[in-house]
Each structure stands twice: as C-alpha cells, then as structure tokens.
Design goal:
By secondary structure, the chain is an alpha/beta fold. The chain folds into two domains: 136 residues, Urease, subunit C, domain 1, CATH 2.30.40; 312 residues, TIM Barrel. It is built from 13 helices and 16 strands. Strands 1, 2, 3, 4, 5, 14, 15 and 16 form an eight-stranded mixed β-sheet that branches. Strands 6-7-8-9-10-11-12-13 form an eight-stranded mixed β-sheet, with helices on both faces. It is globular and about 70 Å long. It starts with a helix and ends in a 6-residue tail after the last helix.
Amino acid sequence: MMNRRPQLFRAAAAIALGLLAESGVFAQSILLHGGTVHTVSGETLSPGDVLIKDGKIAAVGANLSAPDAKVIDVTRQHVYPGMIELDTALGLSEIEAVRATQDTTEVGDYKPDVESWIAFNPDSEMIAVTRANGIAYTEPAPQGGVVAGVSGVVALSGWTPEDMTIKHPAALHLYWPEMSVDTRGRRGGGGGGGRRGMGANAGSADEQAKERKLKMKALDDFFLEARAYAKSRDAIAKGGVPDPGINPPWEAMLPVVRGQIPIMVHASDIRQIKAAVAWAQTNDYKIVIVGGRDAWKAADLLASRKIPVVYEAIFDVPAHDFDAYDVSFAAPAALTKSGVTVVFSSGPTSTDAQFARNLPYFAAQAVAFGLPAEQALKGVTLYPAQILGVADRLGSIEPGKEATLFVSDGDILDIRSNVKHLWVAGKEVSLESRHTRLYEKYKNRPKAN
C-alpha cells in the first residue's frame, strides 16, 4: 500500500498556511498614500503616508516607498488611529427588554473577581455597527454593588472573548456610595454616574450621615483586608510562611493594591468626587473618575492630583435648575483648561450600549463648546489607551505600534463623515453591519405598480 503520509502532511500544511494568511499573520504589506494622517501623538501630515507590515505600523511620513506593498490611495481622505471606548455595556447587553441577553451585573456588593471580558458576546449585532464608525477597542464594564469587578481591553474583531481580549485585568470598577437628598428633595449623587444611579434613602440628616458612615467603613475595611492579603502573599513568596491557598476575590485585588491597574471610581455628584479624591490620596490609590457630571466643579483639585475623568454626561440635561443650559457641553473644555485629562464615553448601561457607535460625536459636541479639536481626538484614542495601560500599542499612529487605524472621507468629528476602511492589528475588517444590510434591502425594494 502506498504511503500517504507526505500527501497528508502537505495538505495539513496548506490548510494551516491558509488559516494563518486569513488571520492576518502573513498579511500583505499595505501603504496608505496621500491622505491627511492624524498621528494624534505628533503632527498631522497632509499629505502623508502610513506603511503597515506584519500587523504593525512600519513607517509614517511623506512620499514613502514600499515596492512590495499594496498601495491604497487615500487622497482627500483622513487616516486616524482606531478609537477606544471606555466603560461600556457593548458586548454585555443586546436587547434591553430581554433579560436573557443581559450580562452586565452580578449579585453582591463586593465581587472583585468578576471578569467582564469573559461575558463579552463576540456575535453581538451592535459590535459591527459600532466598529463601522471607527471604534476598534472597548472596555466592557461590570456593574452592580460597590466593587463590581474588573474589566479588560477587548478588540471589536475576532472569534472568541479570549481571542479578542488583549489585556486583562485593566481596571477595577468601584461605584462610590450614594450621597444624601438635598433640601428640595432631589436625590443626589448616584454612584453609577448621576443619571443612572439610585438616590439615597430619604430620612433625617442624622440617619443619612449614619448610613453614609457605615458604607464608607465597609469600603475601607474591604480595601484594608485586600492590602493585608497582599502582604501575606508577599510573605509567602519570600518563604518560611505556610501557604493556606489562594482566595479568588482577594487574589483579584492584588494588581489594584499594588498599583498595577487603576480604580475606575464611578461618581458624578461633586460630593462623591471630592470624597473619592480624598480617599484615594489618603490610601495612595490610583483612580479615574468615571461619569464625572460635576467634575468641572473640582477641576483644579483633579488636575493637582493628576486624576483623569471619563466624561459621560455630555448629552445629559443640567442636574440643577440653576445650571446653565450648556453646563454639560462646556464641562470638558473647563476640565481640559485646568489640566485634567478628559476621555469620552457613551456610558455603561444597557441603554447606552446601542449608542456606543456615537463616541466621536460626544467629543464633537465638546469641541462646539470650547474644547480644542486635538484634545477631543485624544479623548477617544490616546488618552483611553494611556488609562488602560496599552498606549505602547494603541491610541496613535506611530512606528512600532499596532496597525489599528481607519480611513474616513472627512473629519471624524463631523457627523457627515463616513468610515471607508478599518484595520485591527493590521487586518482589514468588514464594515458591513445590520444597518448596511437593511439599507441595501430597502433601497432595492420592489416599486409600487
């Protein structure tokens, strides 16, 4: 009988090579030529070229030459780094009214070992819709309780959550305890970003103060125990101390108490924000304010502590009847003027997930009310990458970074602009979505007789 092993080996090798080529490992070099290149971290080149090799940005400049590269003419078009959306339910929520499609929240007040990226649904229809507007990465955020869990950095392209997640954990999510009811009976300071959080229970000022004190004691005790666990693990690692085994919730807190990842503090009321800043300073924690409705009122404090703000209130109505109509629109400009790093997000709720695609328009609204355009662009690209600790590979167009970028036919902060191409890690991704399919379907509907 003829030995078929060589033929089988060659067939298997051919299949493997085909799969590798399809995955982008052996992707052809690409030269984007003649466009306006927004490097974000440096100058804008117009015209400029970007050379992509092996999934990386190989060169950025003018009149680049690459004989073996596929040349794509992007004259009169714009090249941007892929946008990054922080604090979102994208991939964790599909249809808000259908409970079975919701995976944003776990039971309990303190659950640091909840890992949001594990629940990410790579087949969500909203992913393609969001991706089609130039958003390449996201940070799905856990919700519920006080310490809701940890988040990761997830690409909006891939087959499985493991395949799509490029960093985990990236941040811990802490929903700051609620504040009291004001004298007019308006509920104040929801922990989940103001418009989303529940107000404090009504009652006397003494009762409210007592409840708030108990909540803060529970929070402090939790972090003290986490620090004690970290010290015990360090002692065990040095030897001479018996190892009782790991504790998953406390194990999840190790990168937090060691300062390796930031704490995303969800707070919108000014009292919450000031209390969180004082708490972080006292305990030497690295925090990011998320929600940030009233953050502009503490702009100098946040700037002095170098605390970034993930601003989610751009389209919120003013919280108080004495606020100016444009208080939410102008807040990012006020924060930036004081030296605060501002990042934009559409928000973490199931309702917000469907609007994740509008991320650049959140930034654009702030530009219309005084924020410099270059800062707005950084707020959806470079600054999110820095907060999540992935700025060495994402957030700007620089040689050596991952080739995650897109081409649009106009300024991406202009709602009239359309994304024409998107690459994630050097692989071009389809821009087809439910929206485009429905458009083509009904554009070609039969004409009435």
